[in-house]
Amino acid sequence: KKRVVSGVQPTGAIHLGNYLGAIKNWVALQDVYDTLFFVVDLHAITLPHEPKELIEATKKSAALYIACGVDPSKASIFVQSHVRAHAELTWLLSCVTPISWLNKMIQFKEKARKSGEDVGTGLLTYPLLMASDILLYQCDLVPVGEDQRQHLELTRDVADRVNNIYGGKKWKKRGGPGGRIFKVPDALIPPAGARIMSLTDGTSKMSKSAPSDQSRINLLDTRDEIVRKITRCKTDSFTGMEFDNPDRPECTNLLGIYQLVSGKTKEEVAEEVKDMNWGQFKPLLADALVEHLTPIQKRYGEVVAEPAYLDGILKEGAERAEVIANATLENIQNAMGFLPRQ
Ligand code: TYM
To answer: Could you say which protein family the record assigns here (predicted)?
Structure first.
């Protein structure tokens, strides 16, 4: 069976972008692939954080995975920091990766600009922690949103580099295990939903770190919050509703969201809304969102009401993940020439 891994950072609330760009697609993959989904808590400390909030957000994220339909009887769900190989492999990869590769990362440049002088080293090496998350599991596919494309390309480059330097026959002659150390994975970016935009600006992506909560729909927003946010979201003064008009980014974005939460095709949506005005479309969208999110919120309530259930799933998930991750780690350690522990 081909393998799939992915994760979301437990910083702030999980929003519609994370769901439509990633989590919703995980659910579709778990029936066909061997899937592992983690909560990337080590990534969440690359910017200043509140320890108490991190622990809560970690549990909340895991519960939301399940609430969104990730099924623990099919997929392994675990917390990144519970599998120590993630942090350990990151060190090994950081010694093989040129700094110039990391300096090119768009997310690093953006975040570093915002954090100024005190930017932590971890913000620079962040993509190597992500590469470790992926390469430890010898996976085939990584379902993510568009904003992670560059990190996936870096992961592939790092995997190739390690395979070239430490894998292969040449190295075998010098005592290494030989063969390929890492499988080189592909990004799986959905045709629709890979880039959900802000409610207040159709040209910037919906994000956890945007200061205004009005800019995003969080999966746990109440009906009132959803209706209020949709009522106030940015619109334009065109008549009718249409996809893909470059002068109407907000319109394209909201129709795309409507398409995904209603389960209709793009053509069906285009036909349904073409003669509507914003005043008619907004309640339709708000209702579709509420209808889609209500069962997720109900299930979330059930999961958090039973902390022992979630603890058990995370324990089992970490135990399973650890077996796969440790085997990869041991292999690269041998290849790099570390003395095996007896
Ligand atoms: P994060 O936590 O920022 O986002 C989690 C997932 O949500 C997607 N996403 C979006 N998709 C569509 N529209 C948006 N506006 C939007 N915002 C976010 C992201 O593309 C991502 O798929 N570094 C990663 C987490 C990570 C990871 C990994 C992912 C760490 N290790 C290994 C896959 C495999 C991140 O910060 O995602």
So the answer is: Belongs to the class-I aminoacyl-tRNA synthetase family.
